[in-house]
Amino acid sequence: MVDDRPRAVEGVSMNLLVTVLFLPLILLAEPPEGASAPEPTTVSGVPATVVFEAGVDPYSHIRIPSLLTLADGTLLAFAEGRAGGDHAKNDIILKRSTDGGDTWGGLQVLDDQGGDSLNDPMAVQIRRGPNAGRVLLFYMSFPEGCHTNCVEPGYGPRSSRNWSMHSDDRGRTWSDPRDVTELVRRPTSSFAGSPGVGIQLTRGDHVGRLVIPYRQGPLSRVRIYMLYSDDGGATWVRGELVGDGTDGGGGDEVAVAELADGTLVLNARGHNNAPKSRKTARSTDGGVTWTPLVNDPALPSPHCMASIIPFAIELEGRPRTGLLYAGPWSPTRRALGSISVSDAAGGNWSGPVEVVPGGFAYSQLSMIRPGEIGLLFEGAGYARIGLLRLDLAEVLADAATASRASRTPVSVP
Q1: Of 398, 377, 371, nearest to 326 (Cα)?
Q2: Helix, strand, coil percent content, the chain, rounded in steps of 5
Q3: Which of 13, 219, 276, 306 could form a disulfide with 331 if both were Cys (CB 3.0 to 4.6 A apart)?
Q4: Nearest to 304, CA basis, from 338, 328, 282
Q5: 279 and 269 in contact (C-beta within 8 Å)?
Q6: Residue 397 · residue 130 · CB < 8 Å
């Protein structure tokens, strides 16, 4: 009998955070960096570093992870600290690691707006040009007692708001939040945001451009677009809305990546009646305009946030480039966390390589060192957010040798 589950990566050694420090305000000094020797633990049954844990960190729920690797190797893990569900007086929180994810510093509360709900942390580092080294963080807020289903279009008191802040010292300290609603969101929309990371373009006619992926409401008609800046974040422009295409449903939470030839590829969660697979589109003008969304049946999805990042590596003396995709490998449940590998053109996916056989929901990939992948993910029951570290060459090898039968998505009861 052919095993139709994704192939697993084995032998990943992880560690546990043992020092947790809660600070109710933005830190004005560098948080402690976990001096004690961490102990191994698991998230969803696999060895992983626990970065956030509900009830241990001072929140009953912690969700929506975002992982950003800085130029010096510092890791920033963002999330929502929640009192309950999606709109339960959420805070935006952060932990830092300076040793590649072995240990993590104390918890920083970057913004707490009382009864209002703060959602969808989205971060990017400026690596070249004006403000090089600066980390930008974007997120949105909803008025108390209201969320995506009841906010109103425009900029009134019953609308959502958009916020930004920045750090010039690798996430140790942060500026005060700035209301950027009218820069980010169209007046005809009721909300705009998306969790994950933005990118800075490295090639082509728009080198240095910052690109932040967004989706906008109302909930009945969610659309995707990019926010971009060519001057280091001093000014921002909204790109055109991405067309829905003709194969059913629209796009929702969205990730973007740059290919080696400068083409941008977006990968989005399906919305409403979209088929249970990822949505994708392409841009050749730095994210201003896009081809219409199309379904990618090679990447099944239970309507869940996921991520893509580019990779470049030399194997057996030959350069190889492409994209990595991480998400649940099931059209029915948030489970079976797996990584798929594209060719240099961002298509023809191989794999998948199963890395988390149990519960697996929102997640974020990041290249944390040359040849080493970091995957920050929500585990079973949303109790823990853990970091997996994987060898890129091993993932590529396992994806290449995965049986064709493994491309059949698994329905998890």
Answers
A1: 377
A2: 5, 45, 50
A3: 276
A4: 328
A5: yes
A6: no
